[in-house]
Amino acid sequence: xxxxxxxxxxxxxxxxxxxxxxxxxxxxxxxxxxxxxxxxxxxxxxxxxxxxxxxxxxxxxxxxxxxxxxxxxxxxxxxxxxxxxxxxxxxxxxxxxxxxxxxxxxxxxxxxxxxxxxxxxxxxxxxxxxxxxxxxxxxxxxxxxxxxxxxxxxxxxxxxxxxxxxxxxxxxxxxxxxxxxxxxxxxxxxxxxxxxxxxxxxxxxxxxxxxxxxxxxxxxxxxxxxxxx
Length: 229
Fold this sequence. Notes:
The chain has 229 residues and is of the alpha/beta class. The protein contains nine helices and nine strands.
């Protein structure tokens, strides 16, 4: 089902109701345009997700990125009536502890009026330093949130040249290359030439479009397999 979006304005916040799939392509673009349009006027957003039937990695990354952007500007993005399908994705990826989630629109709206601020759990010392490279802002946002929730230190970049510099400066244990960077033969050769200096992990070509929960669980398992026992 294509993504359908409806909104209603309430004082200093907007409620956006989503129905359908939030996936790479026109659906994610439509959601981003809707959010950008309304956040020109308010930094407080409630996303009603009770009728979301599917969420891929890029779709979840888009939610993470806008959440972070609104928080940085002093606003917030709250989720409400999250569908069972989407809640399962958030729980599998452990990202249900990142977003403020409410059972109803009214509860989410009241949380704004009461000034309630959800605080994400934080970790102590990071387990592993990981560098992620891909051409997609949204995919990188998803990877960063997912891996940080597992206790890793994460650095991301869209630029292959910056990635090579970051490899020297930050000395990550693992380099994750997304589908959007793997077509860059020059960059991939440079990464491969690093040999044993860093563990190279290539995401599958369909990582951006498969169900976000399964993609995340598979990636976490692969990262775990590269770590010392």
